[in-house]
Structures are given as structure tokens and as C-alpha cells.
């Protein structure tokens, strides 16, 4: 059955729509943190639909909220009408945002959320100049591809914005990697100022930044870096957009939003993924002065629809009621300590926060990336019943991001499977 579905997939879907594993799997059911494929194999899911199934699978409170809306017979209206679930979720997100006068706009994905944020910022500042971080990823649409600083995901050089890239997000391979935190931040701030002075006309619209770079391999800068950047941005009137698509909703453990580790309140935050626990939803929360500054008509056909916003609200309340942020901090610490203490010459760096962990694999004795090792570890982990992700500029970083409802025993099992798989891959390579 899997072979037949794979052949059909290749026949009608684009070649660039990549699949994991030498023998791709079809996930047909799930419960808690486990999923089962079409062949009856069950796995502990440590990638969660790319950080999207943040609560896990088959959660009654979320399913019930979706069923209640389905039972009304109304799956969709559009933002041309009042939508109670949209308003209620927007009120909750505004309350949690920490912004002074927040307003919320819902989209269908993180890509669309970032596109909207860029549109707002460039309109507000009347400039198409944007600052972004090297090794970043912000989506697959026209403007978001343009501000993606990772060649593996940049499909075109054509762009509606003029982008200048700065150092800071990816420390492991930075020319400043051996610096102390304070000196690293100072060097990156100097770079930011030089980039503004030498590669822009000065009237830059915004900087967009991920507090932890997701697709970039969970690259984690020192706390305070973006706050130090913000001091320079303020001198030029440049807006700051925090891309919280992967870092939002408490996944980093320490904070509800990733940007809070940097001691600064941004002008806007974009979000998606974990909010809907699998439902298609994204959006942004921004200061009213920025959000309202559009001089043209605009709507969203599907953004804010009652199915997605009703289910997302249930997911958000579940997350808060069960202190999943605290759980992410506790079990993330357990996983980080276990991985950092594992003796393997393949491991070049273990980084991240909470349940957002990257393991960069390198050739023993240096920093040369070994993407084949990452691919092999993924296969070995799958054979042992664990699904993980990968990323990074060179495809050599293992990405761990399980549902935030993870239990201590599941974390222990995953750590054992992963370290065994890394050790076996080291012996084989």
C-alpha cells in the first residue's frame, strides 16, 4: 500500500515536495504523543508535524470544540461577517501578547502571517528595505522567500523587498563563535550598525527575526541579542517583527514568547503552528498603530474561520490550564542534559530551549557538516520507533520538537533511542 501511494504521490505532486525516509510513511492515526502508520507501526512522535501538533493527538477538548462548530452546519463564513470564535481568540492572544495596544489578524499559515507583517511594515515606513538574519527561514511566498537567509530554501533571487542580512542567529558557525556572550552580542550589534550604514538608504522598514531559528537547525543566539539590536533599530525608527511561528506558545519553556528572552517588546509578533494543534491557522499580533495603518480594503477569506479559531482557542486554553510551558522547561532540560552528556564524536553542538532542541552532527575532530549522518540517524531512530526532524543550512542538524504534553518516561525512551541511533551511525560512518 505504501509503495502504491508513493508512486501516486510522485505522479501528481511536485518533485520539490520532499518526503522523509527512504521508505516514506503514511500516518493514519494518533493518540497522545504516538502515531501509527498505514502498515501498523507505532512511533513516538518527536517532530509533531513540524512543531504543529503542540498538544498531541486525539485531545478531547480540541476535538469537541471542532465538533460543536461542525454540528452548527457552518464551516465557513468569512471576515465580512462577525465571527464570535475569531473575536474570542483574538482577545485571548492580545491579552497574552504583552504589547501596549494589541490588535490581531488571522491568516492560514506562518508564511501568510509573515507576508502580512512585511506588508504592514513596508506600508508604515514607506520603504521596501528589510533587515533579516543569516540562516533564517520565514516562509515560501514571494516576500518571505526574499527574507529567508538560507540558500537551501531560497527558490528565487527575485524579490519585492530589498534585504540586508546581519550576523547573530547562528552562533556555531559564526566568525564570532568563540566570543563570550557579551562580546558576541557586541560584535553582532557592530555588524548590524555597519550593515545599516553601508548597505541601506537608512530608511529601513523593519527587521524580522526568529528568536530561535527553526528550519536553520534550532540555532539559538545568546539571550539579549535581539534586545541589543532593538536599541540600534530604535535610533533609525526601524520596526522589529518577531517571528514566533516556532517559538511561540511556551515551547521554549522559559517564556511564552521566544522574544521575551531578549528583554524587548517588538512592534509585531507572527504566529502559527502550535496554536491550532494541526488546524490551519496563523496570524500576527501588532500594535494598533501598525495594524490599522492600511489605506486600502482588505479581508481574509479563510483566516479567522470558526473551525480553526474555535479549535485553536481550545488548544490554547488546554496549554495554559496544564502548564505545558512548565512541562517544556522541565523535560527540555532533561533532554538537553542527556544529549550533552552523550559521548559521540559526531555531535558538534547541542542547543535550544525547552522542547525545541537541535543536535548538529559533524565529522569527528572538526566542524565539517555530515548530512548523511543526520539522514542515517533519522532512519535508525525510525526503526527503533522514534520520529525526529532535521534541518540546518547543510541538513546536518537533528531537530527535536515533540508535543508539549510529553511525559518523563517518553522523554527517557526518546533519549535512549536517539543516543543509541547516534552511536550506531558513528560506528557505521
From TrEMBL:
Lyase as UniProt keyword: no
One Pfam family this sequence matches: Aminotran_3
Domain of life from the UniProt record: Bacteria
Coiled coil region boundaries: none
InterPro entries, A to Z: Aminotrans_3 (IPR005814), PyrdxlP-dep_Trfase (IPR015424), PyrdxlP-dep_Trfase_major (IPR015421), PyrdxlP-dep_Trfase_small (IPR015422)
Top-rank EC class of the record's enzyme: transferase
UniProt-listed Enzyme Commission number(s): 2.6.1.44
A molecular function GO annotation: transaminase activity
Known cofactor(s): pyridoxal 5'-phosphate
Keyword line: Aminotransferase, Pyridoxal phosphate, Transferase
Quaternary structure note: Homotetramer.
Annotated family: Belongs to the class-III pyridoxal-phosphate-dependent aminotransferase family.
Family matches, as PANTHER family: ALANINE--GLYOXYLATE AMINOTRANSFERASE 2, MITOCHONDRIAL, PTHR45688
Name of protein: alanine--glyoxylate transaminase
Amino acid at each position: 500500500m505504501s509503495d502504491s501511494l508513493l508512486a501516486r504521490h510522485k505522479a501528481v505532486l511536485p518533485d520539490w515536495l520532499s518526503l522523509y525516509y527512504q521508505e516514506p510513511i503514511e500516518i493514519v492515526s494518533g493518540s497522545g504523543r504516538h502515531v501509527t502508520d498505514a502498515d501498523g507501526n507505532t512511533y513516538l512522535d518527536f517532530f509533531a508535524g513540524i512543531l504543529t501538533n503542540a498538544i498531541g493527538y486525539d485531545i478531547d477538548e480540541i476535538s469537541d470544540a471542532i465538533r460543536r462548530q461542525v454540528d452548527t452546519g457552518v464551516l465557513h463564513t468569512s471576515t465580512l461577517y462577525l465571527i464570535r470564535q475569531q473575536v474570542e481568540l483574538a482577545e485571548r492572544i492580545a491579552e497574552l501578547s504583552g504589547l501596549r495596544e494589541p490588535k490581531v489578524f488571522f491568516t492560514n499559515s506562518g508564511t501568510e502571517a509573515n507576508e502580512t507583517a512585511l506588508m504592514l511594515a513596508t506600508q508604515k515606513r514607506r520603504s521596501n528595505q528589510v533587515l533579516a538574519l543569516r540562516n533564517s527561514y520565514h516562509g515560501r511566498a514571494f516576500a518571505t522567500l526574499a527574507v529567508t537567509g538560507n540558500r537551501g530554501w531560497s527558490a528565487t533571487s527575485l524579490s519585492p523587498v530589498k534585504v540586508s542580512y546581519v550576523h547573530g542567529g547562528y552562533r556555531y558557525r559564526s566568525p564570532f563563535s568563540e566570543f563570550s556572550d557579551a562580546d558576541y552580542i557586541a560584535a553582532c550589534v557592530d555588524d548590524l550598525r555597519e550593515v545599516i550604514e553601508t548597505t541601506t538608504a537608512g530608511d529601513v522598514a523593519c527587521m524580522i527575526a526568529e528568536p530561535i531559528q527553526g528550519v536553520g537547525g534550532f540555532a539559538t543566539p545568546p539571550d539579549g541579542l535581539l534586545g541589543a539590536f532593538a536599541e540600534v533599530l530604535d535610533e533609525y525608527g526601524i520596526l522589529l517583527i518577531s517571528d514566533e511561528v516556532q517559538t511561540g506558545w511556551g515551547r521554549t519553556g522559559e517564556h511564552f514568547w521566544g522574544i521575551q528572552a531578549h528583554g524587548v517588546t517588538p512592534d509585531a509578533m507572527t504566529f502559527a503552528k502550535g496554536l491550532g494543534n494541526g488546524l490551519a491557522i496563523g496570524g500576527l499580533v501588532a500594535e494598533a498603530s501598525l495594524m490599522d495603518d492600511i489605506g486600502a480594503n482588505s479581508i481574509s477569506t479563510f483566516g479567522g474561520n470558526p473551525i480553526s479559531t474555535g479549535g485553536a482557542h481550545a488548544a490554547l486554553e488546554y496549554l495554559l490550564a496544564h502548564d505545558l510551558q512548565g512541562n517544556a522547561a522541565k523535560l527540555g532540560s532533561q533532554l538537553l542534559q542527556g544529549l550533552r552528556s552523550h559521548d559521540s564524536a559526531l555531535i558538534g553542538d547541542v542547543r535550544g530551549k525547552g522542547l525545541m532542541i537541535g543536535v548538529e552532527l559533524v565529522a569527528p575532530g572538526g566542524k565539517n557538516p555530515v548530512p548523511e549522518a543526520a539522514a542515517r540517524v533519522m532512519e535508525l531512530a525510525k526503526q527503533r520507533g522514534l520520529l525526529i526532524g532535521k534541518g540546518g543550512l547543510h541538513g546536518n542538524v537533528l531537530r527535536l520538537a515533540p508535543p508539549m504534553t510529553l511525559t518523563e518516561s517518553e522523554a527517557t525512551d526518546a533519549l535512549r533511542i536517539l543516543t543509541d541511533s547516534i552511536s550506531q551511525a558513528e560506528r557505521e560512518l
